[in-house]
């Protein structure tokens, strides 16, 4: 029996979060080139989506893994990303640790 759901998961149409190459970034699962040099780090995934939608030109969802939703776009001609960190310092620390893989 197949159960159909009325909702879409955040990863519909996105790369597989369990891909071995993406596993190097344990929180965000983003690859080099997907994250801009300038990154905003709000806690709330909804706030990250709103920033990308309201402020970025051609902002798009790059990856969603748990509370870490990553968007990249352009703001006034500058490449910028926004990544939600979830609640508290541990989530933010995990994103910062992933950052070393993109620079």
Main attributes?
103 residues; alpha+beta; four-stranded mixed β-sheet; 4 strands
Give a structural overview:
The protein has 103 residues and is of the alpha+beta class. It contains 2 helices and 4 strands; from the N terminus they run E-H-E-E-E-H. The protein has a 4-stranded mixed sheet with strand order 1-4-3-2, with helices on one face. Strand 3 and strand 4 (78-83) form a beta hairpin. The protein is globular. It starts with 37 loop residues before the first strand and ends with a helix. Mean pLDDT is 87; it is low at 1-7.
Short description, anyone?
By secondary structure, the chain is α+β, with helices and mostly antiparallel strands. It has helices at residues 45-55, 88-99, and strands at residues 38-40, 57-65, 68-75, 78-83. Strands 1-4-3-2 form a 4-stranded mixed β-sheet, with helices on one face.
Structural class of the helices, strands and pairings?
alpha+beta
Which ranges are low-confidence, i.e. pLDDT below 50, for 5 or more consecutive residues? 1-7
Number of strands: 4
Mean pLDDT score, rounded? 87
Strand order of the largest sheet: 1-4-3-2
User: Could you spell the SSE succession in H and E letters?
Assistant: EHEEEH
- Count the helices. How many? 2
Overall, the morphology is: globular
Strand content: 25-35%
For the sheet with most strands, the description reads: 4 strands, mixed
State the share of residues found in helices, binned by percent: 10-25%
**How many angstroms does the end-to-end distance come to?**
47 Å
- The value of Rg in angstroms is 14 Å
